[in-house]
Amino acid sequence: MFNKKKTYFQKKSKAVQNMIWDLEFKLYKTKEIREEVRQELSNKKAQLETLENQIKSQKEKPTMKEEEAKQLDDRKVFLDKDIQRHIDQLKILDEEIGGVKKSAENPEGSAGLIQQIEALYELKGIIKSYIKTEL
């Protein structure tokens, strides 16, 4: 005899597996984006270090016009803002990957992609166990 309940839970198990694959793909892409942002941050920090050395040498032995020296200071401000923006992006991506623990500023916390995937694997195991023992 055809068991509708068993078929339903088998489909449910397949749907959970599809959700796992979707989240694993999202985790992969998020890590890829995080690496790109990290590389950009490293480049910006290197540019900032070079610029700071230029500014320091200009203060010791001026070789540029005053206007050009001010432009260096302006570029430093822009680089500082870019660096902070990249740091904030990394923090957001890390929270998306690893989640956020409960804290004063975030009392509920949130599960990251890794925790969601683990929970779905657990759910899949529960469904398979239920199918074997109950149906």
Describe the 3D structure.
The chain has one domain. The protein is mainly α and 135 residues long. The mean pLDDT is 92. Helix 1 packs antiparallel against helix 2 and helix 1 packs antiparallel against helix 3. 83% of the residues lie in helices and 0% in strands. The chain is built from 3 helices and no strands.
Q: Main attributes?
A:
135 residues, mainly alpha
Task: Put the structure in a nutshell.
The protein is an all-alpha fold and 135 residues long. The chain contains 3 helices and no strands.
- The portion of residues assigned to helices is over 70%
Could you tell me the strand content as a percent range?
Answer: under 5%
Quote the distance from N terminus to C terminus.
12 Å
Structural class: mainly alpha
Average per-residue pLDDT, rounded, comes to 92
What's the shape?
Answer: rod-shaped
Order of helices and strands: HHH
Give the beta-strand count.
Answer: 0
Q: Indicate how many domains the architecture comprises.
A: 1
User: Using only CA atoms, what is the Rg?
Assistant: 26 Å
Largest sheet: none
Unreliable segments (pLDDT under 50, ≥5 consecutive)? none
Number of separate helices: 3
| Oligomer status | single chain
Write the layout of secondary structure elements.
Elements: H1 4-60, H2 66-98, H3 113-134
Helix pairs in contact: 1-2, 1-3
